[in-house]
Write a sequence for this structure.
C-alpha cells in the first residue's frame, strides 16, 4: 500500500524524524516474526518473564530453550549438506525445482460412513426453517423424529423436501453451508459431512512462513492416505526463489474430488496460499470442501483442556511430547539464520515440526470421529 505523507512531512521546514519511527519499525519487526496460527486462546494467561522484542505468545523459558537449540543445531550440522541430514530429492517443473521430502508411515483414518453421516444429519430438525429447540422438542413428541418424517408434515413439508434433496445430493459444501447457517460452522454435523468422501480424497496440509502479509512460504507439507498408509510430502525451499515450484507441487495434489483438512487453514493457510499464488500470477486454489480441525476441536474440547493449540491436544489426547521442537513464532528466525549462514541445522526442526503437525492433524480427525460417533 502506498504511504501518503502529511502536509507536515512534505514541508521542508519540519524534520522528517518522527518520534514514532522507531516504534513503528519495532512493531513491524515483531509482527513479521509471528506466525498467525500460533493461536492464543481466550482462557490462556500470558505470564512468565517477558522482554522487549520477544515474539508474542512465547514465554521466556521457551524462547531461551529455542535459542539454545538453535546454537546446538548450528554446531551439530556445521559443514553438513541438507542431503546428508535429510533424505530427499529435487523435484523439477516448469516453475523450477524444489527440495522434496517423502515419507510413508503405517496409519489409518477413522471416519463416518456415508450412511451414518446422512442418518445423523437427517435427525437434526433444526436444519428446517422455523424449527428451534422448543419446536423440535414438540415435533418429536408428535412422532416427527427426522427430516424425512417432516415430508408428511402439513406446514414443514416443502422445506423438508428441499432439505432432503440437498442431503441426498451429498454436496458437502452446500450442506455444510446450511449447517453453519442454522447451527454453527463448528457443529459436529458439519464434521459428519466428511463421511460423504473416501479417505483417499482428504488432503491434510500445513505451511510454514516467514511471517505475515506478503512474506514467502518456506515449507508446504501435505499428507494423503492410501489404504492403510499415510504418504507425507514436504516441499522445502532451499532458497526463496523456489517458492513458485513449491506452490505448484502443492496444487498437483488437488484433484476433482479433493477435500482440504487443516488446522486454522480457513483463516490462515488457504488465504496465504492464495495470496502467494496471485503474487506469482499462478492458477488459483479453487473452492472446495474444507474441514478446519481447529473449529471442531474447540467445539469438542475447549472446556476440557487448557487450550486448543495443536501441540496441547497432541499431548492431552495422544500423550505425545515433542523434543527439540521449534515454536511456530520462531520459525522465521530459524530459517533466516539458515539463509544467512548456510548452516542447515536451524531448518531441521522446522521440517520435523511441519511433519509432526500433519501426523497430529490426521490423529485429531480420527479422534473427533470417536468423540462424535456415539
Amino acid at each position: 500500500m502506498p504511504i501518503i505523507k502529511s502536509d507536515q512531512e512534505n514541508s521542508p521546514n519540519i524534520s522528517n524524524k518522527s518520534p514514532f519511527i522507531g516504534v513503528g519499525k519495532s512493531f513491524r519487526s515483531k509482527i513479521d516474526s509471528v506466525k498467525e496460527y500460533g493461536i492464543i486462546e481466550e482462557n490462556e494467561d500470558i505470564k512468565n518473564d517477558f522482554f522487549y522484542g520477544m515474539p508474542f505468545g512465547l514465554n521466556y523459558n521457551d524462547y531461551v530453550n529455542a535459542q539454545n537449540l538453535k546454537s546446538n543445531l548450528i554446531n551439530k550440522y556445521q559443514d553438513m549438506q541438507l542431503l546428508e541430514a535429510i533424505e530427499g530429492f529435487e523435484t523439477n517443473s516448469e516453475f523450477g525445482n524444489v527440495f522434496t521430502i517423502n515419507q510413508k508411515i503405517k496409519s489409518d483414518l477413522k471416519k463416518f460412513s456415508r450412511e451414518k453421516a446422512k442418518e445423523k444429519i437427517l435427525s437434526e430438525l433444526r436444519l428446517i426453517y422455523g424449527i428451534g429447540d422448543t419446536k423440535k422438542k414438540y415435533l418429536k413428541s408428535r412422532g416427527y423424529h427426522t427430516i424425512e418424517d417432516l415430508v408428511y408434515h402439513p406446514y414443514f413439508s416443502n422445506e423438508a423436501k428441499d432439505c432432503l434433496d440437498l442431503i441426498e445430493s451429498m454436496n458437502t459444501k452446500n450442506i455444510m453451508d446450511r449447517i453453519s447457517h442454522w447451527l454453527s460452522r463448528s457443529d459436529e454435523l458439519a464434521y459428519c459431512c466428511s463421511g460423504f468422501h473416501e479417505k483417499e480424497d482428504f488432503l491434510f496440509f500445513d505451511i510454514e512462513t516467514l511471517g505475515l502479509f506478503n512474506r514467502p512460504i518456506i515449507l508446504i507439507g501435505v499428507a494423503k492416505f492410501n489404504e492403510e498408509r499415510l504418504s507425507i510430502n514436504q516441499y522445502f525451499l532451499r532458497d526463496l526463489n523456489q517458492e513458485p515450484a513449491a506452490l505448484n507441487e502443492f496444487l498437483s495434489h488437488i484433484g476433482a474430488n479433493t477435500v482440504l483438512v487443516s488446522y486454522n487453514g480457513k483463516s490462515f493457510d488457504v488465504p496465504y496460499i492464495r495470496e502467494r499464488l496471485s503474487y506469482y500470477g499462478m492458477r488459483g486454489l479453487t473452492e472446495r470442501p474444507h474441514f478446519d480441525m481447529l473449529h471442531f476441536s474447540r467445539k469438542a474440547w475447549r472446556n476440557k483442556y487448557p487450550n486448543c493449540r495443536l501441540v496441547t491436544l497432541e499431548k492431552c489426547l495422544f500423550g505425545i511430547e515433542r523434543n527439540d521442537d521449534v515454536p511456530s513464532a520462531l520459525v522465521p528466525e530459524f530459517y533466516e539464520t539458515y539463509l544467512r549462514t548456510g548452516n542447515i541445522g536451524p531448518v531441521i526442526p522446522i521440517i520435523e515440526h511441519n511433519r509432526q503437525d500433519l501426523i497430529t492433524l490426521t490423529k485429531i480427525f480420527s479422534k473427533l470421529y470417536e468423540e462424535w460417533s456415539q
Q: What stands out?
A: The chain has a mean pLDDT of 88.
